[in-house]
Design goal:
This protein is mainly beta and 506 residues long. Helices cover 9% and strands 52% of the residues.
């Protein structure tokens, strides 16, 4: 990922007119795409009055599987996500379930706005039982090329930036050039050029299908970043900054190669090797001697990370049903370079559940944790919560630490089912049709950060203590993977307030 999680886009018009910036956010759930169950054909052009598929135990042969609407996307990309293929023999009650799962798999590729699956049964006479199905999958492709502007801030989130005076000096600007579905093979090419508070230049090329079976992929990423301002200390669970308008205080050069293996549909394994070169000016070390390992102004190291995910959620962007499990092992410092003194090993993982509790009432729960054994890392690697994982109600705080545990629960009501809107005045089909859904709900988060550094001082009071946040909010989800959360939260400190977030809570 090119964009650090701490960056947060704050211009809402970018979301709607430049949806290519979706990499900052999660995808959306929508029932606006649908499955049209089999209509029995007496002849190839005449529909009977049978509108639903017989959910019985009879065996049905898929005689043909056809695709339409994929003007750019290669057919093998769609076939890769299907749970059945031409020639398969499936019992009636299984075919409906597999079709729905296939529709969700195609939406989760982020290549299509809508997916519809049609069934038809061809036969010479209605007196003969139908046991041979022709299936057509129709997709509506997205817009794949985005010259998207950048306007983001160097804060944990937009709430912190707004509270602290929404100073534009802490904003960055620039542009992305994204080409999704490059060559029609689900590949993506990205260039980034960012100026202002944080200058960053880089690129990324992702190839999900290296072999004919579509099981191997690779992603190449490279970035160069530099800053005039550095957070050199965490005090009272807030960053303390030092700024030098004349000189760059921090520079970072990073490059990575990520190999992916996906044998089936729902389990994905990755192995990433990364090179990182960091440097700061001596002024930063005067303020924080433990900024890098060994008190040096330069840190160069290799990292190796293994990540395994099993994802069977209905729609990744805004899941209502399904499960998600992941485990990650990361080693920073491989001992390859002569002065590679960083030596950190961490294990992280999470388990998530989503389900329907009652009609139109959905529940969700997550447990997430990280364990970093061994020596206390340098200040640069102390982040636990605040950037990335966070507890709602503590948006204004940064909680440093080595290990942490986090639990989240929510109950949501489907106030407005995904509804399709069409703007006929827009000439481009990829933009004139979109869906909107509304989910109000309640939630509760709890967490604990193990911080061996704060034990020796009273600077940070949120480490080594139970953290609790709860409240109510409303989620708005729409097309091009946009989800907006408006929440009012209370925390254990007796504080409360209104917070804005993008993407799902988990």
């Amino acid at each position: 990922m090119i964009i650090p999680q701490k960056n947060f886009t704050i211009l809402f018009f970018i979301l709607f007119f430049f949806p290519g910036t979706r990499i900052l956010f999660s995808q959306i759930h929508s029932d606006s795409s649908s499955i049209h169950f089999p209509r029995i054909l007496s002849t190839p052009t005449e529909l009977s009055k049978i509108d639903s598929f017989p959910e019985d135990s009879s065996l049905y042969v898929i005689s043909a599987l056809n695709f339409s609407g994929n003007k750019k996307t290669k057919q093998f990309v769609l076939e890769r996500e299907m749970t059945f293929h031409a020639g398969d023999t499936i019992r009636g009650y299984e075919l409906q379930q597999r079709a729905e799962r296939s529709r969700q798999n195609l939406l989760n590729t982020s290549l299509f706005n809508f997916v519809n699956i049609y069934y038809a049964c061809s036969r010479d006479t209605s007196a003969v039982p139908c046991h041979s199905m022709n299936i057509t999958v129709n997709v509506k492709e997205r817009w794949y090329f985005w010259p998207a502007p950048i306007f983001d801030v160097y804060e944990q989130n937009v709430n912190t930036w707004y509270r602290d005076g929404h100073n534009l000096d802490r904003a960055s600007y620039g542009f992305f050039l994204w080409k999704y579905n490059f060559r029609g093979r689900k590949e993506s090419v990205a260039l980034i050029c960012r100026f202002g508070y944080s200058k960053q230049f880089g690129g990324q090329y992702a190839i999900p299908y290296l072999n004919k079976k579509g099981t191997l992929g690779v992603t190449l990423t490279g970035t160069y970043t530099r800053n005039h301002e550095v957070a050199y200390e965490t005090r009272n669970n807030n960053f303390v900054y030092y700024k030098d308008k004349e000189n760059y205080l921090r520079t970072e050069t990073a490059g990575s190669v990520l190999f992916a293996y996906r044998k089936g549909l729902y389990v994905r394994q990755t192995l990433e090797t990364k090179y990182t070169l960091l440097s700061v000016r001596d002024t930063v070390l005067d303020l924080q001697p433990d900024f890098f390992v060994g008190g040096k102004s330069r840190m160069e190291y290799f990292s190796l990370s293994y990540h395994c995910v099993r994802d069977v959620r209905d729609i990744k962007a805004y899941p209502l049903k399904g499960n998600y499990e992941e485990i990650e092992f990361t080693k920073h410092g491989m001992g390859i370079l002569p002065d590679e003194k960083l030596n950190l090993f961490l294990i992280a993982g999470s388990v998530r559940w989503y389900g329907e509790l009652f009609h139109r009432v959905y529940g969700a729960a997550m447990i997430r944790g990280r364990w970093l054994p061994g020596v206390v890392p340098p200040y640069y690697h102390q982040r636990a919560m605040g950037f990335g994982p966070f507890i709602r109600g503590y948006e204004y705080y940064v909680i440093d630490g080595q290990s942490f545990g986090l639990a989240k629960m929510s109950v949501r009501y489907e106030l407005l089912k995904p509804h399709i809107y069409r703007f006929d005045f827009l000439p481009i089909e990829k933009f004139n049709t979109f869906h909107l859904a509304v989910y109000p709900g309640i939630y509760c988060d709890a967490g604990y950060v193990f911080d061996h550094v704060s034990v020796q001082s009273d600077h940070n009071f949120l480490g080594n203590t139970l953290l609790l946040g709860y409240g109510a909010g409303i989620d708005l989800v729409t097309y091009y993977d946009i989800a907006i959360r408006l929440e009012y939260t209370f925390n254990r400190l007796g504080e409360n307030g209104f917070f804005l977030h993008m993407g799902t809570a988990f």
